[in-house]
Design a protein that fits this description.
The chain is an alpha+beta fold and 210 residues long. The longest helix has 19 residues.
Length: 210
Amino acid sequence: MKKTLLLSAAIAGLMGLAACSSGPAPTTEAKTDTKAVEKKPAGPPEPVTAKTAFYAMYTPAHAWATDLLALSLVSGDVQGVKNADGKFGFWTAVFASPSLHAARTYTYSVADQLPTIQKGVKAEGTENWAGPTQAQMTFQNSDFTIDSDAAYKIAADKAGDWLKEHPDKAPSFTLGAAHRFPSPVWYIIWGDAKSGYAVYLSASSGSIMK
């Protein structure tokens, strides 16, 4: 009915214009630009947030095992891509399947770095998995609400004074779950464990964990 009314209104509108016209309707010629439209060259590959990479990997991982659960998500580097503000050119995820008693690794890259890194999603090897432990538990997608860019802002604010003294230190991100935390956490560290600065941040609420 709605389509019929719209069509009737359109016809009535055309008839009204024809009735008001005192002569033949003027014709207009479409002008075509003979100059070829030049395509802009693609810019350099850009880093992406954790969620962008995670869900790109989750789709093929779910095809491997429909009961899969996430175990970890880790940031990485790829040549020619500048990581910034919680966005990275390379991410690695590990998913586990309770029914298959197996875990499988997937990678996501925004650029090639052959022969080891391929652009897009790549399925790596599968390993036996005996189930979650207190040190490494699985987590649900719904528990992963704080993306890496938001986590970076919170952690960088916490580490502000230290970063002023160490502006050359780049962060790395690890998402995982452990028995001592009520929800999955971001482990964000600038430098290394001995001389760097680390922040544990809830991936569900964004709060700093102690």
